[in-house]
Specification:
Helix content: 25-40%
Number of strands: 16
CATH topology of the largest domain: Aminopeptidase
Order of helices and strands: HHHEEEHEHEEEEEHHEEEHEEHEHEH
Number of domains: 2
Largest sheet: 8 strands, mixed
Distance between the termini: 23 Å
């Protein structure tokens, strides 16, 4: 039996158990840096698999280590994120969220279960492999400043240091059984933009007696679109969007201040810094010209995800060997963000997407939606491929 056949057979045999793991994670989701029960469950499984680990990394994170023959020869890291989102699930499933207002709507339950499955598979390959595999269960991908940065700071990439790293994330646009990847720049940097416009409130029927922060804010939002449409270079994808406006007035009350919440995303660090200044200058000067004041606070978030060119080429080769050429697709540039970016800035890394879509079963909802769900069969693909990637990296020095 070939190594590929052995891994595929093990993935199939562990499928029911890994589905149970995923259902547990989905039933009991926890928010960023609150993944205490999640971490305890992962620890219990690693104990059962007899895989040594360090817990409490970046508060709730876990780093497991699987050592084969000659463990110092090469190390490969596999990462799964742990946190859920503040959403109320609307699915009607036996394993729906039991925690009100919290839901695994981004597939992190699948990521954790897949990594546990891959770990179990790898422990059965002692005779075939040399080197070390690090299992990184990371908290707080969803909330700034992100768990990846803290995991790195607390030594997740040391003792031993991985030579390469893979991260997997579900992708509702891809059918179950397929994976997708893109070389080089893949996902955008992300910054949080907070603008507070302060005017003078009063009765809406006497606008001549007020300095209307709602009107001024509307001018600022429209004017800021020129940051993208008139300032960003055509070859530098950029997004500036506002998703929340807080104005505590009423039909006939103009408030004293308005708060705008937005996001800025791009793929160029020099342009990123210039754009921050541009956003500040436009907002402050428009407010001043209309008799108000304005405070701009831009919280610099994750950098862009960069998929190492050589490692991503190897990923395509490995994935094609495991899944077949028809099941490995090229992805477009994405303006979404991921704190896996911090790992990709430190070592050769590859972040790929796992198909979870099944139209016949009605599994089509997007990420971060209250009806998000996955085709369970994707778990078999996810755990098997992760184990295969790690094994191939250890075998191909």
């Amino acid at each position: 039996m070939s190594l590929k056949e052995k891994i595929q057979k093990l993935a199939a045999s562990y499928f029911n158990e890994i589905v149970e793991f995923r259902n547990y994670f989905h039933s009991f989701p926890e928010l960023s840096f609150e993944e205490h029960k999640t971490a305890a469950f992962i620890s219990s499984v690693l104990d059962r698999y007899q895989i040594p680990y360090h817990s409490g990394v970046a508060k709730t994170g876990i780093v497991g280590v699987i050592k084969f023959r000659n463990p110092e020869s090469k190390t490969v890291a596999l990462r799964a994120d742990m946190d859920a989102l503040p959403l109320t699930e609307e699915n009607e499933l036996e394993h729906c969220s039991k925690n009100p207002g919290v839901m695994h709507a981004c597939g992190h339950d699948v990521h954790m279960a897949s990594l546990l499955g891959a770990a179990n598979i790898l422990t059965q390959l002692e005779d075939e492999l040399e080197g070390t595999v690090k299992l990184i269960f990371q908290p707080s991908e969803e909330s700034y400043p992100g768990g990846a940065k803290m995991m790195i700071k607390e030594g997740a990439l040391k003792d031993p240091a991985p030579a390469s790293m893979f991260g997997q994330h579900v992708f509702p646009q891809l059918e179950s059984g397929k994976v997708g990847v893109r070389s080089g720049k893949y996902m955008a940097s992300t910054d949080e933009v907070y603008i507070t416009v302060k005017g003078v409130g009063g009765h809406a029927a006497t606008p001549h007696l007020v300095t209307d922060p709602i009107l001024i804010s509307s001018h600022i939002i429209v004017a800021l679109q020129q940051v993208v449409s008139r300032t960003a270079k055509p070859d530098t994808p950029t997004v500036l969007s506002f998703g929340k406006i807080d104005a505590n007035g009423r039909n006939n009350i103009i408030p004293d201040e308005v708060k705008l919440h937005g996001t800025f995303r791009t793929f160029d660090e020099n342009w990123r810094d210039k754009a921050h200044k541009k956003i500040n200058d436009i907002a402050v000067n428009i407010a001043k010209s209309m008799g108000a004041t304005c405070e701009v606070d831009i919280k610099k978030g994750y950098p862009f995800v960069f998929n190492d060119l050589k490692l991503t080429d190897k990923f395509r080769k490995y994935a094609t060997e495991y899944l077949g050429e028809e099941n490995v697709v090229e992805l477009d540039l994405a303006m979404t963000a991921e704190d896996f970016a911090y790992y990709s800035q430190k070592l050769p890394a590859c972040f790929y997407r796992l198909g979870i879509r099944n139209e016949e079963k009605g599994i089509t909802s997007p990420l971060h939606s209250t009806t998000f769900n996955v085709d369970e069969k994707s778990l078999e693909t996810g755990m098997g491929l992760m184990a295969w990637l790690a094994a191939q990296e250890l075998l191909n020095r």
